[in-house]
Amino acid sequence: MEKLINQFEFGLFFWQVLIFVGLIFLLKKFAWKPILDAVNTREQGIKDALLSAENARQEMENLQADNQRILNEARAERDAMLKEAREMKEKMIADSKNEAQAQGQKMIEQAKAAIESEKNAAMAELKSQVSTLSLSIAEKLLKEELSNKESQTKLVEKMLGDVKLN
């Protein structure tokens, strides 16, 4: 092993350097250019993919913002519609109550008028019957009292006496 380390041969060194330079030249001409082109192409593909991913992320953020805005608008519209529906319901209930109260009051007024009318009719009928009965009783009493001549003259004198007093 010492022989190999201690012996330096210029010829061997020359041929090794020449082969090494030739190998580098051949590699540069035939291998490095395609390797570098492939690396550059891959690097450009990665840059494009990163840019595309960034654009997609930005677009997703925009879509999420749009979706959130649309969702908020839809919620606001839903809330407005629910509020309007509640107001309409309350108005309809209030109108129905008012109408029912008006109808009830009208029916009460009609019932009162009907009762008053029936009462007046019953009173008129009662008066009519009372007057008929009174006349009948008076007629019977007068017939009985005026059945003889003496009671007739007493009645006439009594009536004449009452007229003078008034």
From TrEMBL:
HAMAP family: ATP_synth_b_bprime
Assembly behavior: F-type ATPases have 2 components, F(1) - the catalytic core - and F(0) - the membrane proton channel. F(1) has five subunits: alpha(3), beta(3), gamma(1), delta(1), epsilon(1). F(0) has three main subunits: a(1), b(2) and c(10-14). The alpha and beta chains form an alternating ring which encloses part of the gamma chain. F(1) is attached to F(0) by a central stalk formed by the gamma and epsilon chains, while a peripheral stalk is formed by the delta and b chains. F-type ATPases have 2 components, F(1) - the catalytic core - and F(0) - the membrane proton channel. F(1) has five subunits: alpha(3), beta(3), gamma(1), delta(1), epsilon(1). F(0) has four main subunits: a(1), b(2) and c(10-14). The alpha and beta chains form an alternating ring which encloses part of the gamma chain. F(1) is attached to F(0) by a central stalk formed by the gamma and epsilon chains, while a peripheral stalk is formed by the delta and b chains.
Gene Ontology CC: endomembrane system; plasma membrane; proton-transporting ATP synthase complex
Family: Belongs to the ATPase B chain family.
Gene3D superfamilies in alphabetical order: F1F0 ATP synthase subunit B, membrane domain
Entry's localization field: Cell membrane; Endomembrane system
Chief localization: membrane
Species lineage: Bacteria, Pseudomonadati, Bacteroidota, Flavobacteriia, Flavobacteriales
Topology in the lipid bilayer: Single-pass membrane protein
Native organism: Flavobacterium defluvii
Protein name: ATP synthase subunit b
A Pfam family it matches: ATP-synt_B
Entry function: Component of the F(0) channel, it forms part of the peripheral stalk, linking F(1) to F(0). The b'-subunit is a diverged and duplicated form of b found in plants and photosynthetic bacteria.
Record has Transport as a keyword: yes
InterPro entries listed in its UniProt record: ATP_synth_B-like_membr_sf (IPR028987), ATP_synth_b/b'su_bac/chlpt (IPR002146), ATP_synth_F0_bsu_bac (IPR005864), ATP_synthase_B_chain (IPR050059)
